[in-house]
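Quick illustration, no need to memorize.
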Amino acid sequence: MFESSHWTPSKMDKYNRFGPRDLLRGGRLVNLIMVVLLMGLLITALNIWQLSALQAQHYEAEHAVPEGQTGVESGPMYVVYARHPDSGYLKHVYNVLDRAETGEESGPMFVVYARHPDSGYLKHVYNVLDRAGYRRGNYNVTSDWDVMWAHDYPFKKIRDKMLKMKKGQKINKFPGSGYITNKVNLATSGLRHVPPAFSIPKEKEQLLQYAKKYPDKLFVQKSNNHRGIQIQGITQLDLATEGSFVQEYIDKPFLIDGHKFDIGIYTTLTSVDPLRIYVHHSDALLRFCPEKYHPFDARNKDKYVVHDDYLPSWKIPSFSKYMKDMGFSFTDTLNAYIRSIGKDPEKIWQEMYSTISEVYLKHEDLFIKAVSHYPHKDAFFEMVRFDFVLDEDLNVYLMEANMSPNLSSAHFPPNRLLYEQVVHSVLRLVGVVQGSIRYDLLHPANDEAKDMIVATKDILVFPELCSSDKCSGVNSCDITECNLCLPCLSKQDILEFKRAWLEQVNRHATRRIFPLPVNTSRQTGNNPTTSFHHGPGGVKLSQTNQRMARWFQDEFQKTRLIYCAFLKKIVINFTFLYLINIPII
């Protein structure tokens, strides 16, 4: 019998059968899954967008500019790579970075008080401020500026604006600075290292007696405009002209390759009560007379007067190999030359620094009185150039102090670097060129930001003494040794010591010459303890200056201990590497 051709499905075929209805049901399930996934993606995208919007709103509220826009095209931007970066554990990192940002609307502003400020002679000042993120304003248009660069003395013609200065504003002039930069006042001050001088006609008789006692002396007659000076004998002088003075001429100057020269030291005054003075220690300005000193001819001023068209140092043969061939600074070159003739240059610098301190100490009371007329004594700082000459025995003589020294390199382009370094060091020293936080007059730094840089704990000194029974009594603040302890410090005291602390940190290429550094006291043979009471030249120091000197001493000791501990750690590490035979280099 033949088998039937009709096919009968097996049990397995029954299970594997997939009809149209089943296909339809499966398609619906897939579509449903796709819809659920799509809706999930849409909800997730919506949440991300909402979170970004909230972050942008928060950023704009905190920074006053939309996120991603710093307000300045060169403004810094930071990004974060972390899990859950906004959950709070990075809050303090954000605080530090946020304080270092600034936008154009909140950026610091500088204004200028000067004649013809755009003629080029302030170019290097503008360069430094521009690089520090400052924008220029006009003091006649707005009073919301942060720093004023005054080339001219501002406390007369715009005194009304100076009296209305706001807390936090700074200006590069001190009220009363004319007491030291006035040539008549300085020359007739009677200070050591200042050649004897006589005010005319007031001190005419004293001059005649001095000339009679020293008949071989030559003199120079000067006035505040410093024009038309010439060496003369006593019989050739005009002893009737008001406002002039006659000064002894240093007739045996120290010569280099036959040329007379002077040394300009850039000095910054940051405070007068207490007094703090810094110098630009890394370099100085050397200017040579255009013609050789010998054979001497008093009628030829190019032999003994340093004027605008002076001979630059790099054209002096003995200096050229240092400056042009090897790139050394003015200061390094001068030091190398003096050592080459068997002399010690450090003694010269110390005498010049000591003389500068004496000048300010002599006029300190006049400065304090002048500053007292203005609302904020911490608003002022000033850079002055003191000009010295040396005699053949390397004794130093102070000739003048320049209130607004030349900072234009138009005549000598290589001086650009020196001028910009000087301005940068000054502005960094006083906090105008800021470090790790950015702020301005309209958006001042809050207390937390200020404490991040220097807190009260950082300026406290003498922990053993201050915790002793001697300094814990009711009247302990009347004891000199205890008056630097926290209970004895007023709010103004704390602010003043914080300023001094910041200057010490920000001094960069400058060096403090008053209060006298502790290490300098030891090198010069002075007892640091007695130096609290007397300054250079034996001048008795005020109570505020003594207190500041004591504070700096303990700060120096703390810094020295930290440095020694650091060096000790390095020595231990290198010794360990040596013992286990690991190459150090």
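Residues 1-7, 11-16, 62-74, 522-530 have pLDDT under 50 and may be disordered.
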